[in-house]
Amino acid sequence: MSVKPKAEFWFARRYPLGSPRQAYAPVHWKGWMATLVFLAALLGGGAYFAWDALVEQNFVQGMAVFIVAAIVGTTWYLLVVRANSDTLHTVADYKKGKPRV
């Protein structure tokens, strides 16, 4: 897989090439913001689920809204990570200094 020419990457690999683990972590403030948006989608869906189940006594509707929020939030986050990630350099490389592409 080649790295596309891009001005900035939001995410980088957590483990070096050759590792079976394919985890990514944010290395740019935009990556951290994307992570916070994802967490907000999960927390918003969970809060609605709790409110709907406890106050409105409508457990099924609250669960359905949470599931939809989780699926949409996770899909969006995975697409953002895939589109804005550096597949060659690790987070440690970014901590040492911005790597040259």
Measure the end-to-end span. Answer: 14 Å
SS summary, helix count: 3
Main sheet: which strands, in order across? Answer: 2-1-3
Strand percentage = 5-15%
Structural class: mainly alpha
**Residues in helix, %:** 55-70%
Sequence of secondary-structure elements: EEHHEH
Biggest beta-sheet profile? 3 strands, mixed
Mean pLDDT: 90
Total number of strands: 3
Extract low-pLDDT stretches.
Answer: none
Rough shape? elongated
Output the radius of gyration.
Answer: 18 Å
Put the structure in a nutshell:
This protein has 101 residues and is mainly α. Helices cover 56% and strands 12% of the residues.
Would you give an account of this structure?
Strands 2-1-3 form a three-stranded mixed beta sheet. The chain has helices at residues 29-54, 59-83, 91-96, and strands at residues 11-13, 24-26, 85-90. The mean pLDDT is 90. It has a domain at 31-95. It is elongated, with a radius of gyration of 18 Å. By secondary structure, it is mainly alpha-helical. Helix content is 56%, strand content 12%. The protein is built from three helices and three strands; from the N terminus they run ββααβα.
